Amino acid sequence: MIKKRSALSRLPALLSMCFVPTAFSAELNLPDVPLFVDGSKTALVQIVMERDNKLFFEAYPTYEDINNDGVLDNKFKPHEIDYYGYFDSNMCYQVVGGDHLEAVSITADKKCGATWSGDFLNYMTMTRMDIMLRALYGGKRVIDEEFNTRLRRAFVPWENHTWGIEYTSLEEDGFLISDYTPLSQPSSGRRHHFATNNKDRNDVPFLRVRTNTTQRIWQWVDKERVQGDGYANMDIPVDVTVCKTGFEEEFCQQYPNGAYKPVGLLHEYGENNAMYFSMISGSFENNLQGGVVRQTMSSFGENEVDLNTGMFTRNPGIVTNMDAIQIPNDFHSQTVQR
After folding, report:
1. pTM (2 decimals)?
2. How big is the CA angle at 78 (ends 73 and 81), to the nearest 5 degrees?
3. Do the bridges between strand 43-49 and strand 275-281 make them parallel or antiparallel, or are there none, so unpaired?
4. Which of 39, 85, 252, 307 is least enclosed, having the fewest CB within 10 Å?
5. What is the pLDDT of residue 224?
6. What whole-number distance in Å separates Cα of residue 230 and Cα of residue 329?
7. Looking at the chain, which runs of residues are DSSP E strands?
8. Rg of the chain's alpha carbons, rounded to an integer?
9. What is the dihedral of CA 6, 7, 10, 13, to 10 degrees?
10. CB-CB contact of 105 with 91 (8 Å)
11. What is the pLDDT of residues 184-199, one digit of tens each?
12. Distance (Å, rounded) from C-alpha 260 to C-alpha 117?
């Protein structure tokens, strides 16, 4: 059995889509150890951010060998892979208030029965952009209050960025769908379909479910025009409350005020000023200039996060700029990085 932490196994490939190495024209006399190891210097790190529509495709496509065992992982494989994302693989979630998910129990084997497995939700709903934001600063916060944090999956339009899977049976798929979702097994000769996009053409992402259908998944998410539209038996909003008391995910950190907040690499190396960060990204409005400086070299801890509460300050910086990178939605007013 191949078992690995997806945070480590997937990040090099995913982050390589976003960061561009810097070339030097002359040989440099570089130190043998990182500058920040002895605590006497602050390393300067520049993030060069790609802006590509492929960031908004699924994080776990069916045409990749995710666990590097030489076999394409075209099915959900909870026994072999820990799927990384905004949900905890060992927690079970349910819809609360009709507009978001919250953890309600902890599971040792990822199985949840009458609720939604966090592992399955990561597999079905995360985009590549979400994986990157999760690693860098814990994810995109749509609610960031002192004791309340809610993350939102990246915007996925209803064209070919929409993706989905079909589930048939234990024999066909290798797992029981009733172990990881509130759904019963499909009737003989029928399938459950799962598709994910922003169906209402606004900011809110959904996992859409059709049960006991005789159709194939490509008839729903690989059509000539609009994908993942029409009826669904269930529409699950995939905004998620994180760092909830008693259900703190592994990426939650406690702050002096007692609150837990989701954190990432920028917090780990930026809150203590071990590293300063700057950011450059492409620009559609200035596409011949090679990029725009979105954030000058500065302290992430002093500029972008309240070190007492863990809340983002929302000062212009790396977080505000990365949150603004998305596919424009012509049907809804959004703040989009230009």
Report:
1. 0.85
2. 60
3. parallel
4. 39
5. 82
6. 19
7. 43-49, 91-96, 100-106, 116-117, 141-145, 148-151, 163-167, 191-197, 206-213, 234-237, 240-242, 252-254, 260-262, 275-281, 292-298
8. 21
9. 180
10. yes
11. 999 999 999 999 999 9
12. 22
**Number of neighbours of residue 89 by Cβ within 10 angstroms:** 23
User: Alpha-carbon distance 329 to 338, whole Å?
Assistant: 13
Q: Is 107 helix (H, G, I), strand (E, B) or coil?
A: coil
CA angle in degrees (0–180, nearest 5) for 76-81-84: 95
Length reported for the chain: 338
Q: What is the pLDDT of residues 1-25, one digit of tens each?
A: 333 344 444 455 445 544 444 444 4
Instruction: Return the percent helix, strand and coil in the chain, to nearest 5.
Output: 20, 25, 55
The structure tokens 């799927």 sit at 83
The CA–CA distances, whole Å, from 51 to 18, 47, 55, 56, 122 equal 7, 13, 8, 10, 23
Can you say whether residue 310 is alpha, beta or left, with left for phi > 0 and alpha for psi between -120 and 50 degrees?
A: left
Question: Are 289 and 266 a contacting pair, CB within 8 Å?
Answer: no
Q: Judging by DSSP bridges, how do beta strands 292-298 and 275-281 pair with one another?
A: antiparallel
Q: How many angstroms separate the first and last alpha carbons of the chain?
A: 45
Tens digit of each residue's pLDDT (9 = 90 or more) over 55-101 = 999 999 988 999 888 999 999 999 999 999 999 999 999 999 999 99
Whole-angstrom CA distances from 110 to 72, 107, 232, 274 are 22, 5, 25, 36
